[in-house]
Every structure is written in C-alpha cells, then in structure tokens.
Amino acid sequence: MWLTRNRTLILSMTILALLAVNACLPKPSSESGGGVNITLYGFSIMKESLEKAIYPAFAAKVKREHGFDVRFTSSFAGSETVTNQILQGVKAQIAILSIERDAQRLKDKGFVTSDWHTLPQKGIVNKTPFVILVRKGNPKGIHDFSDLAKPGIKLIHPDPVSSGGAQWSILTIYGSELVKSDKQTGGADHARAVQMLQAIWRNVISTPGSAREARTQFESGYGDALITYELDALLMKKGNAAVDAEIIIPEATILSEHPAVVIDRNVSAADRPVIDAFMQYLWSEEAQRAFVKFDFRSATSDALTQENKELATIKYPFTVDYFGGWDKAYPEIIEGIFRDTVQKRK
Q1: C-beta separation of 77 from 85 below 8 A
Q2: How many CA atoms lie within 13 A of 300 on its CB side?
Q3: Strand, helix or coil for residue 262
Q4: What is the pTM of this model?
C-alpha cells in the first residue's frame, strides 16, 4: 500500500513537470485500463462546442499521442445554477461559467484554490456579443435595444437569479445607453440608461432559467423578441431553419467573456495532470478554431474569429471593464440599479 501510494505520487509529480515544459503526457496511474473521466459543468450555451468538437478532439489527441482514453461527463444549465450545484456538492472537476462573479463565488467558498487568472487570457476561453432576435420581417420595427421599450412589445428575458446570460443582458441594455449617450453628447447619461432599463423590463413577459431555455421559448413562437448571445442566435437559425426569426445587431453591445476554472477540491492528484492538460488545450489554436466554428469569438486571436464570416461587426463594442469589472458591475448595476430599482418598480 505504501509503495503504491508513493509510486502514484511520484508519477503525478513527474507528469506535472513534463506538462510544464509541454513534454509527453504519460499514461495516468489512475487509468487502470479503463481510461480517465473528466467531469465538466458549463453554462448552457457551451454544450454544442464542447460535446461536438472540443471533447472528441482532445480525446483523439490524447489517444493518438499517449495511448489512453479520456471520456467526459458534463452538465449544462444557467451559470448561477451551475455554480450553486457545485457549491451543493456535485463532483465537477472543471467549470466554464458565463460570468467572473460565479468563479469568484467558488473561490470564496474554497472550491477553487488555484488562480484562474494565471491561465492564458486570464482564464477567459471565448466571448460573444449580445444581439436581439425578432420575428421574420421584423414586424415590430426593432432595430436596437431602445426599440424594446415600445408599448406592446413582448420580450423574453432569462432570469438574472439563475442565468449569467441574463446578467450580461442587463449590463448590455444599461451600458448601451451609456455608450450611445456618451457618443452623442460627450457624457454618459446614467439617468437615461436607468429609464431605458425600466422601460424594457416592463415589457418582459417570461423569465426562463437560462439563455438556452429562453431561446427554446422563442423558438416555440412565444414573444416578439429575445435578447441573447450572438452564438445562440446563430445556432438556432442553423439548427432550425423553419424558425421565423431574424438577428438584429445593436449599435452598442457588450462582449460577454467566459472563464474556465478547475474545481480543485474535486480533483485528485492522479487526475490532476489530465485536467491541467485539458485546461491548457482550451486555448490551443485547434480548440479556439472549434469555438469559432460554433459561433463564439476567439479569446486568443482576432484572425481566428474572422474565419467565421457570419459573426457581426459591432459598431461600439464594450466589455464588463467599462463598468470597472464584475466587482463593481454586480453590486452597482445588477443589485443596486436592476434589483433594487427596476424590479421593484415594474
């Protein structure tokens, strides 16, 4: 027993050292002929790119180069829901989240002990802007977020309590008005931005639990419009040509950025080398190109992003850094403006 434990420890340390210099990945001692399983929990729109491209490509690479099998178990839901599931004890080893705040929640509770900011691109694996889906022919004349405030518009919007996408959407509505007012007058008009958020929220008729659930409702014919990730809008049109929808590109919109973290509490020493190898793979050119193929924007290369000709050009793009990062955006906008002002006045 003592010999076995020490042999496992020595082998794991050797693998980590080899990974550090991009050397070979030895066959893990935990495999025992059955391969290695990686458990990943992700926010809803990560499903297609991971299951159809990233997982099989990484598994094939390991099998080809190192001779053992890697399998994946995954679950997808709203980012806040995924984070809560991990905090409640599901044995996810990796999480890909919609918002940085959820990664921070996992760190604050001791589930993540490593610093994801030391990973490539500070842990951001991909990004995507927010757009508006409308019915074919755009019968309501919606051309920007401000048009969603018109009387009679029926808007589907995911629930900010469970969905990271919903929180991005709130930031994009609010920030869009700040950016446009600044371009028009030379100063960001916060009162105008609050009024716009209030007017749009009065037209929300449904708040599903995730961006994907919201898309499903819209596909079923419910509502006039949906604010969603660009990639989910494109995936919907590719996957269901019968859907009577068009994509509207707002003048100013946010680029959501999505962090990947290791749930260190759930990773054994034996599995750590393969987990770390997969994490590094997410920023490889092969993986980034796969994300772009599935309508994300690359976190590493604008040139890769430009390979997908369906991705829109945004006139005034901005990120959460426009608000000072999530540490300021969440308490000041999501809680202080949206929860404490907009929701209470609906």
Answers
A1: yes
A2: 18
A3: strand
A4: 0.85
